[in-house]
Design goal:
Number of domains: 1
Strand order of the largest sheet: 1-2-3-4-5-6
Radius of gyration: 16 Å
Largest sheet: 6 strands, mixed
CATH topology: Aminopeptidase
CATH architecture: 3-Layer(aba) Sandwich
Number of strands: 6
CATH class: Alpha Beta
Helix content: 25-40%
Length: 169
């Protein structure tokens, strides 16, 4: 895909544009994160309360959000949100895909793959050598999506399975 002067790339879904979100996109990002969490009955950002917090996050160098919108109205289509953190294993950051969401009526049209591709390119340009994501074991569709896009639950060196351990604080 060619990048336009605005930093937007044409997306695969009818008229979708893939671009990096900035602080002025806080309302759009908050709304998409809210929609994502509502769909899966999980707590998430509240569009009536959390826009200022999301705006602060969008001002940080260690937070990256990629959005897909439609032309010409800029309607919400999807989002990929990532965080970057230092690691002792290489000079660049370790990237973590926090959320990837595409509106249900626009799924299976390549928007998620386009968001993921742009996110992967952006974090790689920032020096990241790995991109991690946590996927619920029961979410077979998401697991298949990530496997189609080059992710694995196996350690690339040993071939052994990897697990995430979580403890609420």
């Amino acid at each position: 895909m060619s990048t336009h002067a605005s930093g937007e790339e044409p997306g695969p879904a009818a008229g979708a544009r893939i671009r990096i979100a900035g602080p002025t996109d806080a309302e759009l990002v908050t709304r998409l994160l809210h929609d994502f969490n509502t769909e899966f009955d999980c707590p998430g950002p509240d569009p009536d309360r959390d826009v200022p917090r999301i705006e602060r996050l969008l001002n940080r160098d260690d937070v990256l959000v990629v959005v897909a919108t439609t032309d010409p109205g800029g309607h919400d289509v999807g989002i990929a949100s990532l965080t970057l953190r230092p690691t002792a294993y290489w000079d660049g950051p370790l990237a973590h895909l926090e959320d990837l969401y595409v509106r249900p009526d626009l799924r299976s049209r390549g928007v998620g793959a386009a968001l993921l591709d742009r996110a992967r390119a952006e974090v790689h340009a920032r020096g990241a050598l790995e991109l991690h994501i946590i996927v619920d074991d029961a979410d077979v569709d998401a697991r298949r999506f990530y496997e189609r896009n080059g992710f694995s639950h196996l350690d690339p060196d040993s071939g052994s399975g990897m697990r995430l351990f979580l403890r609420q604080l």
